[in-house]
Amino acid sequence: MKSLREQMDIVNAYAELGSYRAVAALYGTTHRTVKQVVDRRERQVSEGVEERERRERKTDAVQELIRQRVAKTDGRISAKRLLPIAQAAGYTGSARSFRRAVAAAKREYGKRQRVYRPWRPEPGEHLVIDWGVEGQRHVFCAVLAWSRYRFVRVATDERRETTLRLLAECLAELGGVPGVVLADRMGCLRGGIVADVVVPHLDYVRMATHYNFRADFCQGYDPESKGVVEALVGYVKRDLLPTLEPGLDLVVDNTAARTWCAEVNSQVHSEIAAVPQERLAVERPLLRPLPTLGLRLRDEVERKVDKMGTIRFGSARYSVPQTLRGRMVRVWASEGEVIISYAQNEVARHRLVAPGDVALNDAHYGKAATRPARAIRPRTAVEVRFVGYGEVAERFLRAAAAAGTSRLESELRAIVDMEGTWGQAALLRALERAAHFRRFTAHDVRQILAAGAGVQAPTFAGEPLNLVSFPSAVPPSLDAYALGRTT
Asked: DSSP character for 269?
């Protein structure tokens, strides 16, 4: 008994082909069955019989749940495991009906599944790279797609500098440059993602330009688009890493990796039924030539600007503009200098200093560095009046406090009272002279005021002497010294 869908397909096919036997061969049935289906449909149309309406089924209430579970498990969930979940959601039908509903949902899901097509790599076109991690070891893996030549190295991290350095080493070993380098969406090589399009980092673009290859990235959340290198990563973890000694030793581990690569590249590859080393010899003339000059890769790190406007690099501190506080900047050393950049723009450059030292630029803080001084905060009326005399009174107060003058507050009260007798100008001159000779009591200031203008003005070393008080004399003219002249 053909289902309604199959009967409709047969009727539509007969309308196009016009032959019972052709339709029977297309759907794997007999020409008699096709004739019966077509005749039955014609009778229904001529008699005006409507198609039988679809009966409501108990599985309709949980049909959406079945579709979601089938899609979530990629069509692998069984009806036996899904039945208790459906019963908890309100399904009251039989297990047989439920199995049929799950089978129909799986068939429908299978029609929407991805269609795989074998990749046919071209010689000299693709190099696929990826990282694998096993404990402390980070394994860099690369495969030349056509020849299946494999390159494996061990590192301590997956930084951009390490990735680019190992990629350059891989290209040097291949003896040429492929047209495209396909990589996973590793964070060390990308600068951002816009509309699911990867923006490569500027250093990676600079390397691609230098070596003349196109930097490409696999589709997001789609590891199957680079399965050739994923298979190599798994192969390395199963075959190479278990043979390494415990503990990370880059020299020993990379020596073992080179030996392993030489061994596997000289054996017949099961996928291509050829030796990768021999295929590389055929593919190498099709690779692009290596550049004559090596690419200089800088070793830069990322640092966060602290609240003092500095970053820490090499156990030393370096200042940056204050507008970058709390931001992440890139730092690297080059030819005795430390260079700091933000958003691909250089923002600071300092001379490399020793560990524990600090390199500051006054322009980053808006003014030159000054010695720290605690502000004077007068509280009593006497203190406010004395500090109001200005800078001279402030220097006097700081020097008197540093000298440990006893009863300083009462001395200030007595000095302030002298203003009414001697005037503010004379008092300020007396305070300046008292601070210079370290005389901080009110009695000392009173003695200086009493001496008046007769006191000597001190002169510091290197300054001209003040000889205004000496008498002046009018020198005679030169005629007074003429010969033969009598006075």
From this structure: B
Structure tokens at 407: 């009863």
* Side-chain half-sphere exposure of 424, counting CA atoms within 13 A: 8
Residues 281 and 204 in one domain: yes
400 and 276 co-located in one domain: no
Residues 177 and 276 grouped into a single domain: yes
Q: What residue spans of 77-116 are helical by DSSP H?
A: 79-88, 95-111
Average confidence score pLDDT of the chain: 84
- Residue 487 placed within a domain: no
Q: Write a three-state SS string for 375-397.
A: CCCCCCHHHHHHHCCCHHHHHHH
Tell me the pLDDT tens digit for each residue of 76-104: 899 999 999 999 988 999 999 999 999 99
Return the H-helix or E-strand segment holding 323.
none
Instruction: Check whether residue 228 and residue 281 sit in a common domain.
Output: yes
Encode pLDDT of 202-252 as tens digits: 888 989 999 999 998 887 766 666 666 677 788 888 888 888 888 888 888
Answer for the pair 10, 23: CB distance below 8 angstroms, yes or no.
Answer: yes
73, part of any domain? yes
Task: With cut-offs at 50, 70 and 90, classify the pLDDT of residue 43.
Answer: confident
Query: What is the domain range of residue 83?
Result: 58-111
Q: For residue 218, how many other CB atoms are within 10 A of its CB?
A: 20
Domain count, the chain: 5
pTM: 0.48
What gap in Å lies between CA 55 and CA 324, rounded to an integer?
Answer: 69
Instruction: From 234, 259, 286, give the residue that closes a domain.
Output: 286
Residue with tokens 């390490």: 162
Q: Is residue 461 part of a domain?
A: no
Residues 258 and 136 in one domain: yes
- For position 157, what pLDDT does the model report? 85
